[in-house]
Amino acid sequence: MFDFLTAPLVVGILTLGIYALFDLLVRRKERMAIIDKLGDKLDKSMLEGKLKLPTFRNVNFSFTSLKIGTFLTCIGIGILVGYLLCAGTITSYIDGDWTWEKRQVASIIYGSCILISGGIGLLIAFFIELTLKREKKEK
C-alpha cells in the first residue's frame, strides 16, 4: 500500500546514518586536538577538588515519577473496573450484541472510571509527597 514511501525512506535513513557517522568521527578528532593542545598546560593541582561526584543532600527532588506512576496505575485499575462494571451491568456485553444505547452506557462507564481513578491516583501521589516532605522537615 505504501510502496512509494520505501525508497525515499531508505535513502533518507542511509543519508542520516552516514552523516551521523562522519559527524561523530569529526567531533572525536576535534576533541582529541583540544585535549592535545591543553595537555601541556594542565597540572594535576589545577583539577584537585573539582572532580567530585555530585551530592544530593540539599537538592529538592521532584516527585514527577511518583505522580506519573500512581496516575497510570490508577488509570489501569479504572479501565479494569470499567470493564468489570460493563460486563456485570450491560446485558450481552461480552457476546457482542451491541446497540447504540449500550455503546453509550459503556463509554460513560469507562470514561467515568478512568477519570475518577486517575484523580484518586493523583491524590495518593499528593499525600505521599506531603508526608515525605514532612518527614524531611522533621529530620
TrEMBL record:
Pfam families: DUF6249. Residues 13-129 form the DUF6249 domain. Keywords: Membrane, Transmembrane, Transmembrane helix. The chain crosses the membrane at residues 6-26, 71-94, 106-132. InterPro entries: DUF6249 (IPR046216). This is DUF6249 domain-containing protein.
